[in-house]
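Researcher: We're teaching a course module on how sequence relates to structure. For the next exercise, students receive a sequence and then see the predicted structure as tokens, so they can try to spot secondary structure elements on their own. Here is the exercise chain.
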Amino acid sequence: MKNVTDSFVSLGHWPSAGSFGFNTDILATNPINLSVVLGVLIYFGKGVLNDLLDNRKQRILSTIRNSEELRRGAIEQLERARARLSKVEIEADEYRKNGYSEIEREKVNLINATFDSLEQLENFKNETLQFEQQRAINQVRQRVFQQALQGALGTLNSCLNSELHFRTIRANIGILGAMEEITD
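Model: And here is the predicted structure for the students to work with:
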């Protein structure tokens, strides 16, 4: 180490300026070369290094600012989405409630309509039964009347002779004539 410091302090050991050559003493030349290179790098590279570091710092700060803006935008979108979700949930609950009440109303209306239809069918059935009963009763009456009429005609025909027959006809004509006079 003493040789290294001596080479800086004492210039007498250096060869004269008139000759140029290579110094093969590694211990003496490496620290000098390194100090010169480091001095030149520090002197000239300081500005470049500062510029690179400043550019990097600006890009990092810009990226941080952009990230913060994106974060704020994402938070705003998240809040809007949450608000919209709560609004949609409220609307869905209202639709569900309204849907259930509408379904209940439709169910009641359907039950009432079915009840009314059944009542109308029952009334129609009863009317049809009454009509059929009345028709059956009329048919029975008609047959009974026809049989009674045929029996009466048979009895009359067997009992009546032509003289009695003429007298009955004249009596009926007389009754009809009297009725005609009353109406005039």
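Model: If you want an answer key for the exercise: DSSP finds three helices and no strands in the chain. The helical segments are 2-9, 26-159, 162-183.
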